[in-house]
Fold these 4 entries.
Entry 1:
Amino acid sequence: MSTTEAMTTSEGQEAAVLLERTRETVNPELRRSVESLPGSMRRVAMYHFGWEHEDGTPAAGGTGKAIRPALVLAAAQALRGDGPAAEGAAGGGAAGEGVAGGAVRAAVAVELAHNFTLLHDDVIDKDVRRRGRPTAWTVFGTPDAIITGDAMMALALRLLAEDPHPASAAASARLAACIVELCAGQQADCAFEQRHSVSLDECLTMATAKTGALLGCACALGALYAGAGPDEVDAMDAFGREAGLAFQLIDDLIGIWGDPGHTGKPAGADLLARKKSLPVVAALTSGTAAGEELAALYAGPMSGDDVGRAAAAVERAGGRDWAQAHAADRMGRAVQQLSRAVPDLGAAGGLLALAEFVTRRTK
């Protein structure tokens, strides 16, 4: 094994430990918040998080990777300088709160906001599978899924409003502004599907708003809860945004070439929906014959047989290589921003491990 491979493996293991301990720390508070919802909204939310089956009976749970709440806790940890975030999150809520600057409620708020977007995205994109199960809107109907997503966003803001931590007001305002930006990114994404031509710069701006904004906000909230100053908070936000764009680039690659057994979605789902994801737009604007072939496929309804041809065209036009290279470039920028907030990057091991995880993942 090479030194690089060994480092990647080590960081991957650290990220896995950090994410698991984040779930142990955050999930009890997250579940308490979800269980406070009334009636049918509670049932939809409990199903969406994997805690209940469609009929309301208990399920094993599949609440997702917890990347965003982990970023909140890791950012608070890095700026307080108390040691590795993975160690700080050990032992559940009380221990996690003590070492992560009392940021657990902020982490839960970010996770609720993220799942608000997932419930809405599934409706907008007409996705029928998430985390290996039918999506909430296909089980409970579109109105209930949308309304439950709205309620989750309200829960997120209420958690921060009721938090006695001195940073809670600033965190609430920052999260609210982030959601407005995120919605603007989602609106742009939908508009792109109706347009014949979309530039790569437009697509990058949209992805930064739709994905980078919330990861940046997660890091900024951790910084706020650690008592950081404005410059450090902004640097943490910039780190999360750059890492978020790298995350989206990798997610777009998975949307084309991901293994359905791991993603829980059909192969080439984004192509079948004719989404103008970043690798696709890079291919469409490449000026190559393969890009023209892809444009022709995107001009009409996409059949299952067309998906393989479209994926091959994206690759031949350079979209896959561009996305991989650009993801690496964005991560380089992310580390530069992180060093503004935490000059000794050794204190930011948790953040770096999470960043490595989101850009090295293949599912």
Note: The first strand starts at residue 129 and ends at 130.
Entry 2:
Amino acid sequence: MRNLAIYIVFVVVVVAVGALIGVNNVPGEWYQSLQKPFFNPPNWIFGPVWTALYVLIGVAGARTWIRKRMGTCMRLWFTQMVLNFLWSPIFFGMQSPVGALIIIIPMLICIIAFMVLTYSRDRTSTLLFAPYALWVAFATALNASIVMLN
């Protein structure tokens, strides 16, 4: 029962903080005026994708917390989460695609490092992070393209 509570707390906190950040950093006129690459998805896709990813991230975080609270994997999980939560305020709030690119690259590195370290210990967490890694790799390419086009 205790583990179930840990899963619930991780998922609720990650989804709630992500939603709060998203609501307070919506793409506005500034973002609409930017030149974007041909592969830029429609704005409506980001909310559902991030919500699903945040659930997966929360579950992986809970699994890692249960296994070893103070370990390297948990530190990587928290580091990528901080970087994740910083990205939208920097990109949209500060209107800084360059600043956001500086954030998303180490975020992607932390995500990949988390996956590498959990692969032998907790393959489920690695698999939970796989869609997240793919999406952040895509987002990194999108962010870099926006920097180059503007």
Note: The chain has a mean pLDDT of 96.
Entry 3:
Amino acid sequence: MKKYNLLDKNKVILVTGAAGFIGFHLSKQLLEKGVKIIGYDNINEYYDVRLKYARLDILNQYENFTFIKGDLADKDKVNELFATYKPEIVVNLAAQAGVRYSIENPQAYMDSNIIGFFNILEACRNYTVEHLVYASSSSVYGANKTIPFSTNDKVDNPVSLYAATKKSNELMAYCYSKLYSIPSTGLRFFTVYGPYGRPDMAYFSFTDRIMSGKSIKIFNNGDMHRDFTYIDDIVEGIERLLCNPPKEDENNVQHKVYNIGNNKPEKLMDFIQTLENCLGVTAEKEYYPMQPGDVYQTYADVTDLMEDFDFKPDTSIEEGLSKFVKWYKEEWSKDQDKQTVLS
């Protein structure tokens, strides 16, 4: 294991997508440790904004949290943000998420994931930062049949525009690292789940529908595998690398990509059964063929993460789903106005 620097609590950290799922949990964890967090988010309506405001209500309780509402595609606003707060570390988690939605509304992905990320890179170039950490995705692996998925694998065949934008982000970050000496780390997240998660994700929408007595839609007739990764593991992984920009590679570029996944793909039907056990309800099921943009399996090789940061996500689906269901029953569904039942 290589030695790595622990979190420096005196750093000013910008978290884009702070009202989002991962951004909220990361910000909360860092705020509790006394770090000054600048949160930036456009609060778009891709899913129920009341959940985003519920997250912000919690973050706003911390004196060391500052929130600015704005869009990454607004270059002037992004530049103003950097000029005013001078972040030393930037964590770019803001993006238009969702594989299937990218088929319906590709423009949103170009605006946020391409133009928005370009604006972040430009701001990091013009207002020197110590480390840019940005969200990529396991979706970049497409229909890769070599398992587990390694960051050394060729990923030139995306099966969704969402995946293509995330691969583009990696290429853009590498280029800016090379040309402008911006230390950058990309993180390929694998199916993140947990409390305050995204309602469009399967586990959340399944729970909504099961608790409302509605059937759930299961694609590829349930024959899929996912490397489900609990949110606390994602946050710990990010925290460990914040103050550890990558060393120069053989081309003198400070850029590296890591997988963050549980390194243990679960059968979709086993995941559903575990969720049913946690809810105490058996779901009525409807089976459908594979949907465009979906992949059969995801499986993270986390060797580099273990070697560089002595860390490997290991929360079981039993533990993770139990925590999610506890939050859902005690915090979310108790307020019926907040419930989001997806069709």
Note: Residues 336-343 have pLDDT under 50 and may be disordered.
Entry 4:
Amino acid sequence: MTKIIKILGTGCSKCKALTAVVKEVVLENNIDATIEKVEDIMEIMQFNVMITPALVIDNVITIKGSVPSKKQVLALLTSNN
């Protein structure tokens, strides 16, 4: 089943780093996922996120305010299989 990944952030360096890490993990591990970058502040606020970047997997906020390692992202993406 395709995972829906949303990266919430307005374009700061941490937001860009999180996007890069997530894309690398998805590609390197052949994970069936769609990645959406959410930069609209009103849409970000719907998730009740006050600090970015944030990583949302299948509508569950998994990371807020930091850039996880590739290993951490992989664990998050594979833990609910």
Note: The chain is about 35% helix and 25% strand.
